[in-house]
Amino acid sequence: xxxxxxxxxxxxxxxxxxxxxxxxxxxxxxxxxxxxxxxxxxxxxxxxxxxxxxxxxxxxxxxxxxxxxxxxxxxxxxxxxxxxxxxxxxxxxxxxxxxxxxxxxxxxxxxxxxxxxxxxxxxxxxxxxxxxxxxxxxxxxxxxxxxxxxxxxxxxxxxxxxxxxxxxxxxxxxxxxxxxxxxxxxxxxxxxxxxxxxxxxxxxxxxxxxxxxxxxxxxxxxxxxxxxxxxxxxxxxxxxxxxxxxxxxxxxxxxxxxxxxxxxxxxxxxxxxxxxxxxxxxxxxxxxxxxxxxxxxxxxxxxxxxxxxxxxxxxxxxxxxxxxxxxxxxxxxxxxxxxxxxxxxxxxxxxxxxxxxxxxxxxxxxxxxxxxxxx
Length: 375
What we know:
Strand order of the largest sheet: 1-32-31-30
Shape: globular
Number of strands: 32
Low-confidence stretches: 1-48, 346-351
CATH class: Mainly Beta
CATH architecture: 7 Propeller
Mean pLDDT: 82
Largest sheet: 4 strands, antiparallel
CATH superfamily: YVTN repeat-like/Quinoprotein amine dehydrogenase
């Protein structure tokens, strides 16, 4: 179940601040402009064609979903929440529909359908902290915004064929349902008592109960293919990266991540701290810097000194950054080698949550979302 954590006390007359949700990493600030400054010696460096358009954006309240042709923006206009679809190239508004006051998770787009929260419930609320979860999901046509179906539950995974929903139901009895993307009809359903976490790894759905019991289901029909048990305590997190299952536990000494095969639940290796997906390696951090681990053995393939955070920007590139100095490097994730001849770059402006698709760079800066052409 998705949690929105509003961790900053609001100003008078202002909505509580919301931390952007993420499955694996807390808020990550990255200027992807660095990418285009550094990689010229390896690929043609695409010059910026200038800002195409911009729109107001509150990073504490709003969310965006980016596709190669469209930008979907959840925004509070004069306090009235709406989900809007923009043409990415021109900024033309295609459609706008009412939205719930809080989106506990960002919408997802697949197969010509946008899947978004349609209702929510607060289960903890005070001036500086709001915990909310999605209670109903809506699917809309991406071209018109017309509603295709509504269903109880929160979307956990969206594919071109189906949407995986978790419905808390009456009395907190969690139900896992896979429904058709186009019409919302149920493809399969099964109870998931005591659900603490859920992740999709390839063709498998892995659920974790509060006692550490793992159950592996086939995505196509919900059939159980494997069960097992792992050490579990409050705050333990289930994630997936590089096709592997990761269980991250917190104790008095810090975090420990254990990597498992998702098909057999066989334990492979452990590392201190959280692990993230760096395609094709798993990335972690130790006092020496950013590390690229072999997903199967845990062997260190490379280390980037002084770097502390990694963000994939394609199948064969990552931006490594330092939270201490603001330095950025473009790296080949397979080898850890620096791409290009330029040295480290530094984040000089408040570029937040930049994202890219072929031909466009979308960034949040100075309370606006800005779309820039990259040719």
